[in-house]
Amino acid sequence: MEFIENAINKAFINHELAASQLYQHRLIINDQKRQLFVQNSLQDELDTCTDFFISVAFVTQAGLCFLKTHFADLAKKGIRGRLITSNYLAFNNPDVFRSLLEIKNIDVRILEQEGFHIKGYLFKQADYHSMIIGSSNLTANALKKNIEWNVRLTSLENGELLIDAKRELEKMWHDATTLTAQWVADYSKVWSATSKEIVQTKVEEDQAVYSIIRPNSMQQVALENLTKLRNEGGRKGLVISATGTGKTYLSAFDVRNAEPTQMLFIVHREQILKSARDTFKKVLGGPDEDFGILSGNSKDISAKYLFATIQTISKQTTLDSFLTDAFDYILIDEVHKAGASSYHKVINHFKPNFLLGMTATPERTDDFNIFELFDYNIAYEIRLQEALEEDLLCPFHYFGVTDYENNGAVIEEATKFNNLVAEDRVKFIIEKIKYYGVSRHKIKGLVFCSRKEEASTLSDMFNIRGYHTAYLSGDDTIEYRENVIADLEKGDLDYIFTVDIFNEGIDIPSVNQIIMLRQTQSSIIFIQQLGRGLRKHPSKEYVTVIDFIGNYKNNYMIPMALSGDVNQNKDSLRRDTFETNYISGISSINFEAIAKERIFKSIDAAKLDSMRSIRSSYIKLKNRLNRIPLLSDFFEQKSLDPYLIVSGKVNSINTYYDFLLKMDDNADKISNLENKYLMIISREFLTGVRKHDPLLLSEMIKGTMFTRKSIQSLFESNGLDAQTRTVDSVLNTLNLSFFTGTLAEIYQGAELIQADEIIRLSEGMRKSLSNNIYFKLLLEDLLSTCLKKSDAYDTKKLLTPYQKYRRRDVIRILHWDKQLVDQNIGGYVRKGNEFAIFITLHKGEAFSGAMMAYEDELISPDLLKWYTKASRSIKSPESQAMLNYDKTNLGIHVFMKKSDDEGTDFYYLGRVAPIKDSIKELHKPTNDGKTKSVVEMHLRFLEAIDYKLYKYLINTI
């Protein structure tokens, strides 16, 4: 009752009051900038409920896609729910009713009454009910895009509002018709002529839009940039554009603008030639003889616009038949392949007025510099996220599902062929495919497999089960491939099974389902395969992507590919897995619970900070920039977390200078002392946890001297905490007096400042800045990067919820005078009114790092069961402090990590208050067979933990 009352007081009387988020009443809206969406509230409620009742007038297939993985997870727990919808205005397509029939743990009824316009969602939670009532139907636009207002309300069982709502729902349920396959069949037959006319008109409008030959928003900007580049004397240009955004049309528009006498278009596969030629013909117009093909079967070398395969044009006999200035405009499609010798031969032979390269993925694994090839002239760049934001691509719904498991054995890299094509696995795959479905229920799908024999056999097994499928590999002729693709486009085939020949360079716009039955080899290939379905087409509203996730070591690449976050920070990848709001538009990313855990396991095991991985990121960035990157470049280009370079985990590299020495790219030399300065700043401030320290240093290297009062003014002017104890903490850190133990020994003699009445840089630092320009450059770059990384932290708070901190960071930020060695902190530490608790939830079966097994437990998003250290009693100081919490004004902060596999950093979960009645002394067994006293208590979070982070922390395979 107390929590419900607190929620009412906060919502309706005083917003500054504290209340548990579980019980809060709140407004639910869609806000793209803050990444707040109605879908998330529904997903969170479903994940914790024991029963649900949804009543909405309108439902779409795309709307269901936002919730399907959550329904599937509920089904595994034996939880069912009910849904009432309508046939009002014939809005609901028969296809959505077919999709609902596939969700076996939802009972569905249709209220066939005029004016049914309800939008309500009711959830039974463990000890309360929650309701979301407002404007949102169960459609993709309503859940993520539209301007919507909904109110979340909570109630105990006897609340009048709840009783009234349940009574009305039960009345509607009694009056409604049960959804059956026969009802859907009947509804389809009588689906009103008006509805058919609306749909037909919509299709005709879509087709009309697609038939208009004009640049889209991306192409228009790119064309302006290309024209400007040529006007400024540029002879080469590179366009980086996500698959499906219309690169071929863009190049045709640019050729129309450039008006070349003769043009050469180079592709790497013959089946692309005709499509490219037809596109150019639509845009440029002119007689057929102007458009020729140069390939193994055709030699139209005199055509004004020549479309050639690289295999044919690169033959020496072919090149010899062309003068070097035969073409004044040359285009190379999929130009990331241009590192091959065949491309070099062609590029070196011809001297066009302009050379255009196009690719969705300029990154290479062989260190070839695509950017250098095009004089570093990036005319335009748009990646997946931006393309979705600009509505250039078809929306997609990605489902990361759990692959087949038999007697504890899960599909993995070494799985035998017989298990990949086992009858039970095929049955399992088909069930998942049917459950997650396709737009408009007419399948046109591509299935990517791990090996040829698997693809071929699965195709046969699907055919036996009534599907119409074909298998394609690189062994098939071009003509056969084109015929199979045409059969898929016409609807004569449901699926094409393949291994990797459709990763790029193929255009099947009507594809509406992508199935991935293989491990992710690279984020580039993942996006290439996903991109096969992202072209817009009037036959589909969205693309379904079903990724069967086994125990693959490369699973960590999935969130990397979907988010576009390649900085290789493990915490970022974890967050991109349990919090997927980063995807733009009305697309969605959904993981089944066990599939999500498999990704977390892969992230934990991945060696993302290896020298090989860091070197690869460095070379890619250097190639793009055409210079030695600064440390800040890694952050700005989102290519690598700079802290990974200088963390000291790789070959004793403690500074960016150390790394540049390894790369043999250092522009000059610095002294050991100067490198030590860089090491201290890198280790202590590059995590970004406190902005004060690098900010003050940045001002001081400009020659500014400070007093404590002027430091406070500096902090206040930058919106930072400027308490006296904060200033003292910063000064203690910069003059190194904070550090103790091993760190004090390592840092000794490299004090950054002198802190007397006048605060200035240390003498050694001043001399270095005066005498070594290169050191100054490295220092300024490092401090700039520290400040940029600190933007992720809330400057209005000492500690930012859900960010990660090391133990010594916490001690420093909470204003301890001296660092405490991690081993001495153990599970918690207290000084004055600040109490910091550090918890590792899953310690592993072989854990031996403590005297006894501590069974700390997150009971709910707002409740923690916690134990003191061994040999503590109810009379121990920490127990007494908890018992007298109301009188002591104690600030109790909780930091938590899932397991030691996550490293040494802890998520900050917020402040807690002890529940006095729960505090009790116990005796528990120790490692030596004895028992010791310990105090157990429940701690209530003042603000409930973000639900997705809570689920991540408590779940384990």
Automatic annotation (TrEMBL):
This protein's UniProt keywords: ATP-binding, DNA damage, Helicase, Hydrolase, Nucleotide-binding, SOS response
Lineage, highest ranks first: Bacteria, Bacillati, Bacillota, Bacilli, Lactobacillales
GO molecular function: helicase activity
A Pfam match: ResIII
Highest rank taxon of the organism: Bacteria
PROSITE patterns: HELICASE_ATP_BIND_1 (PS51192), HELICASE_CTER (PS51194)
Helicase ATP-binding domain sequence ranges: 228-380
Name this protein carries in UniProt: DEAD/DEAH box helicase
Keyword Lipoprotein: no
Keyword check for Heme: no
Domain Helicase C-terminal: 432-577
Signal peptide: none
Matching Gene3D superfamilies: Endonuclease Chain A, P-loop containing nucleotide triphosphate hydrolases
